[in-house]
Amino acid sequence: MTAQLTRKQMRTVWAETVVESLDADPRLVVLTADISSWFFWEAKKEHPDRVVNLGIREQAMIDIAGGFALAGMRPMVHTYGPFLIERPFEQIKIGLGHQDVGAVLVSVGASYDDPSWGRTHQAPGDVALLDTLPGWTVHVPGHEDEVAPLLRQAIAGDGRVYVRLSERANSEAVPVSDGFTVLRRGSRGVVLAVGPVLDQVLAATETLDVTVLYTSTIRPFDHAGLRDAVAGARPDVVLVEPYLRGTSAFEVGEALADVPHRLRSFGTWRDREARVYGTAEEHDRLLGVDAESLAASIGDFIS
């Protein structure tokens, strides 16, 4: 019997990649807020001035990242999504954006990876919130093998980058690219899957005559890729994102501004909260983004 390899979590791949990059890139500085700081205990011995755990001081952490960036360093900032994007949003807006300096923000927790922590550890509106600020690149890897190339690209640059890690992952990786990857061709519509919802989308559309697009980079949005896909299919677009429903709807509208089309969006609710615990898979069913629910909804939409 062949032994099955144990897959690493995205967060583990992130930490390993960052430790390697600390050795290779003297610009890189890592800022944590207790969360995941244990990954860097050994690296801190080698780079005491470039591995800093600030405790639960997230607003200060962002402004300190801005200071490092102004000094020519490349700050990477990490904690749970709500503590990284929502709590210090003013500092992101001013300390990074208004000062026009770059940083790499890396979150864990996604929208509801571990619901037992409750609403305080959930940030389904994080990408939508960053959409109110200019100049952000947003990566949403769907597999652990997509994490390292996205991170290395982000570390090597100077811009403002958000990497949204998840504890959930697709069964297979898709090669990282700047735009959409076509995984299936069809004629009755286009379904766009972002990051770790791809397995559900592929299962849901298995018997449907639709084109399936995938991306691990949702900002900037690949307008040309969507237009190319719609040109070969009926202009009905289904958007499945692992965060707030309709977050990229305005981008679809921009891409197809001169193309009459219909759009259906799936993701977390906008008009109410899921005030329950349970498992992430139970939240999928509640929100209608599990494979069975998506199959029924997408089938009704394209028919």
From TrEMBL:
The GO terms describing molecular function are: magnesium ion binding
Q: What Gene3D superfamilies does the entry give?
A: 3.40.50.920, 3.40.50.970
The record's CDD domains line, in alphabetical order, gives: TPP_PYR_DXS_TK_like
| Domain of life per record | Bacteria
Extract the InterPro entries matched here. Answer: PDH/Transketolase, THDP-binding, Transketo_C/PFOR_II, Transketolase-like_Pyr-bd
Record-annotated Transketolase-like pyrimidine-binding domain positions: 8-173
| Protein name from the UniProt record | Transketolase
